[in-house]
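# step 3/5: fold
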Amino acid sequence: MSNEQLQRQCDILRAERDQARARSDSTIKVLLKIHALLYPPSTKTSEGQTFVFRPKDPDPHIILQELSDRIRALPDEIEAHAEARAHEILGKAIQPNENLDTPKDAYGDRVWWHAENIEVILHGRFTADELEAIAWWMRNKGEVK
């Protein structure tokens, strides 16, 4: 392998690592929202006494409803993170009508896609993150599913 090929492979692996970290961070934030509803663990003192958290007037229905709501919100929060990531990556290529078109004054890589199409026109070199963002955009913003 040439140095250029090794450098390209390193760039791809770095991008994949960064994307995995972003997904992991997003998942952790969502799970922490659920964790916040759980009771803290019991605590034992050096004398052997055990203390547990017991609110004086808990309404288990309110707590379970909130927990259920937070769990049900997981897919939407994960999807919102994916959309924000696609916006971040695609940037100026996103048109007001949600089509993809690299600005005419842009030099180099080009992307062109309209919502009614099932194919995209690409010209240039794209990272795995860019291709994944384009694929996400086509799956979620297109009229053809």
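# step 4/5: annotate
The beta strands are 43-44, 50-51, 100-101, 110-113, 121-123.
# step 5/5: archive (pending)
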